[in-house]
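User: I've been going back and forth on whether these two constructs are worth ordering. Before I decide, could you fold them both?

Assistant: Sure. I'll take them in the order you sent them. The first construct and its structure tokens:
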Amino acid sequence: MEKENVPQHDGNLSKKNLKELVYATDENGNYTTALSTGWEPKAIALSNAIDDIKERAEEARIKVQNGELSPICYFMELNKMDLSILAGYVDMWKWRVKRHFKPSVFAKLNNKTLQKYADAFDISIAELKNSITK
């Protein structure tokens, strides 16, 4: 696309005064960079993705309150992580992190392990243990 035709849609990026770097051609046909606030299809897709994340986090919160999942799963969703990303942050195997989703296993975790999760979520151990059950 030509530099003067780079989309400038009033979407999620423009609301936060953010711009993304895109490639475009200049008047001589050479590739150059330009800043864009996005375009409508991308804004719709981003909005839908954010709504999906909020919905998954809410479902996880309810399951934590019902004793079906540990708070780790809720905070993972809230922080827009998946199992692989979280396992990388806490330096554990994915199967081990997934095991910690069980409330009975979570209740037995030592403070060192809980601190790894708290650090990954940028919260305290107390918040990890108590913030959802209230």
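The second construct, handled the same way:
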Amino acid sequence: MIQILKSSNTPIMGGGTFKLRMIRPGQIHHKPLDDSAFGSLSRIDHANLGVGALVSMHLHRNDEILSYMWKGEMVHRDSTGQEVVISPNRLMMMNAGSSFYHEEAVPEKKVEMLQIFIRPREKDLPPRVQFYDRPLDFRNSEWKLIGGPEESNAPLTIYQQIYIYDAHPQSGDTIEVPSLQGLTPWVYIMEGAVQVGEHSLIKGDAITDSNSQLPPFQVTETATLVAFLIDQNAPFTMAGLFSGVR
């Protein structure tokens, strides 16, 4: 059965140079839950950061965190001494593992992004940070694999049975959601608008179907879509400082 989480049901927090919409993916079920994650997909922050925004050095532990940059540039500094500019052409995956510190600053170009928190398969794995330099064509409606488990050979490795794709279909396109046997789709409308059967979805909405493949998306306004394919039976640790919150 198709289930939808509307943007109007997720709160906007902050103001000024730091605003975010905190999304708990399990809320798409619209029922009381002991845990508001969707399998290992724990939380998504849809953030808008103005020039001058700074998130000072802070700790992550046992969190898998994808920084999906859609607009702008952000400077990442971390406890390994790296300083890297991330942008829509350079995405970042932090496998926080046993301990990892980083900070984020927006010195020149305001940012719109998703920060995606995933529960790893086990606690206290070796920490590392990865970057994916990619050509970006907002006219390309094909799904591109961004991250996945080690065996997927995805550009960014996630220590969990979850695959992450994006696509940028144009108005008038029809696009099929990617599928893999035994995995459940959860799709976020980053920008634009789509029609899925009788359902109209706009920026900030999400859709899933736990029982079958989602129908094709009819793109009614040029869009950016982010799709997650999730093994809801995969083991995960609750030890994450952020992803382990129920």
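Notes on the second construct follow. The chain has one domain: 2-230. The chain has a mean pLDDT of 94.
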